[in-house]
Automatic annotation (TrEMBL):
<dbReference type="Pfam" id="PF13456">
    <property type="entry name" value="RVT_3"/>
</dbReference>
<dbReference type="InterPro" id="IPR036397">
    <property type="entry name" value="RNaseH_sf"/>
</dbReference>
<dbReference type="InterPro" id="IPR002156">
    <property type="entry name" value="RNaseH_domain"/>
</dbReference>
<dbReference type="GO" id="GO:0003676">
    <property type="term" value="F:nucleic acid binding"/>
</dbReference>
<dbReference type="InterPro" id="IPR012337">
    <property type="entry name" value="RNaseH-like_sf"/>
</dbReference>
<protein>
    <submittedName>
        <fullName>Ribonuclease HI</fullName>
    </submittedName>
</protein>
<dbReference type="GO" id="GO:0004523">
    <property type="term" value="F:RNA-DNA hybrid ribonuclease activity"/>
</dbReference>
<feature type="domain" description="RNase H type-1">
    <location>
        <begin position="1"/>
        <end position="132"/>
    </location>
</feature>
């Protein structure tokens, strides 16, 4: 699973993209977010991604290993430490969303390796800006 968020600092609008690859099939999701800054948006879209994956898998979560890719250094570091000074409630929410899975392996990737989720996030952000 790949996630990415996009935020327009002037308007405070945020959106995110989720790319799930499961059984050789892609699921692409994009959505507006409630977060008003990029760090919070990265946590929010990651949480939504795990919730969506759990909905897709149902009871199979308990036997599923998830490879989670993010280009957000703070999300990656916070999951490793189970701590983020200014975002602890978001870290806790994300860890709770990961709990149903047997194992979650988080990997930081450069933005250029996260283009699928990045493109979805930007498409959703543009749609939110046009709707405003």
């Amino acid at each position: 699973m790949y996630t990415d968020a996009a935020t327009q600092p002037q308007s405070g609008l945020s959106a995110g993209g989720i790319l799930i690859i499961h059984d050789h099939e892609q699921t692409q999701l994009k959505t507006s977010l409630t977060a008003t800054n990029n760090h919070a948006a990265e946590f929010e879209i990651a949480r939504l991604g795990f919730q969506r994956l759990a909905d897709m898998l149902g009871d199979d979560c308990a036997t599923t290993t998830v490879l989670f890719y993010t280009d957000s250094q703070i999300v990656n570091d916070s999951l490793t430490k189970h701590y983020a000074k200014h975002y602890q409630s978001l870290v806790d929410d994300l860890l709770a969303a990961q709990a149903p899975f047997q194992l979650v392996l988080t990997q930081w990737v450069p933005e250029k390796q996260n283009q699928g989720a990045h493109t979805l996030a930007n498409q959703a952000l543009h749609s939110a800006e046009e709707a405003k």
